[in-house]
Amino acid sequence: MGQTITLELGEEAYQSLERVASAAHADVRAVLLNMVEGMVYPLASSSVFSEMALLSDSELRDAARKSFPRAQLRAFDRLRREQEDGPLAPEEQQRLDTLRSAYQEAEVRKACALAILHLRRQLDTKG
After folding, report:
1. For the residues 7-17, what does the mean pLDDT come to?
2. Which of 6, 21, 53, 54 is the most buried (most CB within 10 A)?
3. pTM greater than 0.70
4. What is d(CA 116, CA 121) in angstroms, rounded to the nearest whole number?
């Protein structure tokens, strides 16, 4: 059984939801529910999110600024370009897969850090 909550939205936010709902041929409630279920649940159920939620704002800002190492990014880009030209050798494919996983993890960490910082700011200004 789900929970019922009452949500007060600003006029601009509600109008944005109405535009999205109209474009999707859906009602505002369905759009909002889809957004919450599709965005918040996967983020909150992520082990990275849970781990990062324990960090201070300063640590989160550092995590959000952290970039993927240049040498690894160059190797990742080179292997992706080579893959477009044809199949990679098994060891190159393994390297590409490893780099892709590392890059995706780094991006998830940045996204989580930014999301948590944004939520904290929003709660601070409204609380």
Report:
1. 90
2. 21
3. no
4. 9
